[in-house]
Amino acid sequence: MFSKKKQKVDNSSLKRVSHTPSIISEDVRMTGTLISQGEVQLDGRIDGDIKAEHLVIGSTGIVEGVVEAKSVVVKGKIIGTLNASEVKIQESAHVHGDVFHDTLSIDAGAIIEGSLKQRFEKEEVELISDKLKPASEAKILLEEDSSSLSFVNKQATDKI
Questions:
Q1: If the chain, 160 residues long, is cut into consecutive pieces of 10 residues, what is the mean pLDDT of each piece?
Q2: Are 90 and 142 within one domain?
Q3: Cβ neighbours of residue 63 under 8 Å, at least 6 residues apart?
Q4: Could you identify which of 6, 45, 91, 150 might form a hypothetical disulfide with 62, taking C-beta atoms 3.0 to 4.6 angstroms apart as the criterion?
Q5: Quick one: 50 and 64 in the same domain?
Q6: Residue 3 within any structural domain of the chain
Q7: What are the start-end ranges of the E strands in 76-129?
Q8: Are residues 62 and 111 in the same domain?
């Protein structure tokens, strides 16, 4: 009358996403790599790399290693490279290493020893060769209103 059918579940396609942040408290010290698909609140110390979606390093938090995340808020200390899309470095933060970012916010009082490098600089390249006028036209324009030119610029226009 009652029958059970076994259903196969493919766990490899399921992605665990938790809305509760993982909290590493002040009295915890870890060695190794921490990987999270959600938010991590670090108030302890990690000697190793961190890969997370969102990371908050509290005022007592310390990371010695590479930090990679979508967004990072630093209130504590990072010794190593920080690579994130959105970086917020608050006044109590100490960052000793390079910071790679798309957007960056630094509060007054934060200490940063390293370089700041934007990951994806957007460059607008515009060809202006079609818009250039021949030198003879430029000389005529300069001769018409040369009263506002300095002595050095007047000498430069005479060479055109």
A1: 52 55 94 94 96 96 96 97 96 96 95 91 54 56 54 53
A2: no
A3: 42, 45, 46, 50, 57, 76, 77, 78, 79, 80
A4: 45
A5: yes
A6: no
A7: 77-79, 82-89, 94-96, 99-106, 111-113, 116-118
A8: yes
